[in-house]
Amino acid sequence: MPAGMAIPMLPADARLDFDFKGGVTDKRLFPWDVWRRCVNQALRTQQRAGGGVAAYRDPGGEQELRLGVSRYLAFSRAVVCNWQDVVVTQGAQQALDLVGRVVIQPGDVVAVEEPGYPPARALFAALGAKLAHVPVDREGLIVDRLPKHARLVYVTPSHQFPLGMPMSLARRVELLEWAKRHGAVIVEDDYDGEFRFEGRPVESLKSLDRAGLVAYVGTFSKTLFPDLRMGYVVPPESLREPLWTAKRAGDWHSCMLTQTALGTFMLNGEFAKHLRRMHKAYAKRRAALIGLLTDELGDAFEPMPATAGIHLVAQLAPGWDEDDVMKAALDASIGVYGIGPFYAGERREQGVLIGYGGASVEAIEGGFRRLATLMPGLRR
């Protein structure tokens, strides 16, 4: 697979003493008893649906879930939308696929962040797009570097993937103005912005959009767990009907049972309770990790500024090599992941991505104290 198209990750059956892969959540803290009740209620609903006649459902999704999503977005992200504006998808990846299918023609230019999210790059390339890898700085995507003829711009403004910095408000406004001038569609992937630990939330691109240019993509993979395969997109008005049609043409609709259970979970307040519990747990893990990186590992690592999410990137100081650190860590049964593969071109940073979503405070302390004993011998 071409550079920058695949996420570096060990096989699913790999067993390490400590594994800090990104995008992992902690199912041990999920309220399974509550979820079981929601599923049982959904089963009863499914039994009654259609008066006993089995039929296909609305491609946009079940009304209860779409209503739950629209209320949640209005409260947490200032994204004001009707429930009919929400299209339920099989994770964020299908949301990106649907937007790509209705916007991109083969040969169109799609701008992506550099470094950036490999599955999105691979998807747009598979649709025949020409990828323009636009560098980021400490304020996010550098708008001045966007190609003039880009048809679509894909960004992760709440928590840039993988480096972690949020896009500044000034840069968000600049990007929206650029898209309006050039008639481009912006895809805002807000994959784990729910977990914010510092400062006030920055307005989402969707909430600032007055020209109908932003497709807002969200997922339950980071708030609940990835194997649920549930996501959503709130498209611009001009794309709502084409997306609905594309969803119907692709798989007609997502699982009714899961949608109904999740809709109940959201509307009865359990989703918000779960987010509060997880925010508290992840905040403790993040604090423990940053403390170790700046204290016992301070000579080798510098955490990059990241105010949200369930992973962070730690830059390596001069004298240490990313590949050497990853290999030595793996030999010591520690999984940390270099950021080099997230670059399509020459990497401009040396560092590792550290996910703390699935690791307890005890695991973080054990893993990084073990890593600290290795680092002096790896310095060149």
How would you describe the overall organization of this protein?
The chain is of the alpha/beta class and 380 residues long. The protein has two domains: 18-29 and 272-378, Alpha-Beta Complex (Aspartate Aminotransferase, domain 1), CATH 3.90.1150; 32-268, Aspartate Aminotransferase, domain 2, CATH 3.40.640. The protein contains eleven helices and 14 strands. The chain has helices at residues 32-48, 63-76, 91-103, 118-126, 169-182, 205-208, 237-250, 256-267, 270-294, 322-331, 361-378, and strands at residues 18-19, 87-89, 109-114, 130-137, 140-141, 150-155, 185-189, 214-219, 231-234, 301-303, 311-316, 334-335, 337-338, 351-355. The strands form three sheets. The protein has an eight-stranded mixed sheet, sandwiched between helices. The chain has a four-stranded antiparallel sheet with strand order 10-11-14-13, covered by helices on one side. Strand 3, helix 4 (118-126) and strand 4 (130-137) form a beta-alpha-beta unit. Helix 10 packs across helix 11 (361-378). GO terms for molecular function: pyridoxal phosphate binding. Residues 44-336 form the Aminotransferase class I/classII large domain. This is GntR family transcriptional regulator. It comes from Caballeronia telluris.
Q: What's the CATH topology name of the largest domain?
A: Aspartate Aminotransferase, domain 2
Give the SSE string: EHHEHEHEEEHEHEEHHHEEHEEEH
Distance between the termini: 31 Å
Strand order of the largest sheet: 2-9-8-7-6-3-4-5
DSSP strand (E) fraction?
A: 15-25%
Q: Which secondary-structure class do the elements indicate?
A: alpha/beta
CATH evolutionary superfamily of the largest domain: Type I PLP-dependent aspartate aminotransferase-like (Major domain)
CATH class of the largest domain: Alpha Beta
Instruction: Based on the coordinates given, report the CATH architecture of the largest domain.
Output: 3-Layer(aba) Sandwich
- What count of structural domains? 2
Oligomer: single chain
Task: Note the main sheet.
Answer: 8 strands, mixed
Helix fraction? 25-40%
Low-pLDDT windows of residues = none
